[in-house]
Amino acid sequence: MKIILTHEVSGLGAAGDVVDVKDGYARNYLVPRGFAIRWTKGGEKDVAQIRRARKIHEIATIEQANEIKTKLEAVKVRLAVRSGDAGRLFGSVTPADIASAIKAAGGPDVDKRRVELGSPIKTLGGHQVSVRLHPEVAASLGVEVVAA
Asked: What Pfam families does the entry give (predicted)?
């Protein structure tokens, strides 16, 4: 099935790309979550608009991405969350929480979709988080999760 991606999907493509995927993947995952729309001749006009919006939000050059990477890695991110007695969290830390904590700590504005967690953060302590700034540049930063 041909689809038009509306968001960047890791391993598949960027917003505005027209890709061919299995029917079930498109019907059950990509389209319901708003990551893609079905390809039609009329939808081809939307591709140009999606690509224009993507150019506004994306980091254009590797130099610019490396500059933001150094700013990100210099920021100390501390996130206060509710937790139980044994240090386990009530819920987990989401990429949106981390993006807002980076902004609150004085770091650059980061899109929550660019924050990649290796595994869900469900305990207190230090954790490593990756932020994909450019297809070739990713920043690694430490996040300290403390009890609120």
From this structure: Ribosomal_L9_C, Ribosomal_L9_N
In angstroms, rounded to a whole number, what is the distance separating the alpha carbons of residues 90 and 145?
Answer: 12
Q: pLDDT for 61-70, tens place per residue?
A: 778 888 888 9
Backbone CA torsion sign across 36, 40, 43, 45: positive
N-to-C CA span, the chain: 47
In the numeric block, the tokens 């990551």 are attached to 35
DSSP 86-146: TSEEEEEE-HHHHHHHHHHTT-----GGGEE-SS-EEESEEEEEEEEEETTEEEEEEEEEE
- Residues with Cβ < 8 Å from 126, sequence gap 6 or more? 142, 143, 144, 145
DSSP-derived secondary structure for 109-123: ---GGGEE-SS-EEE
Q: What is this structure's pTM? A: 0.67
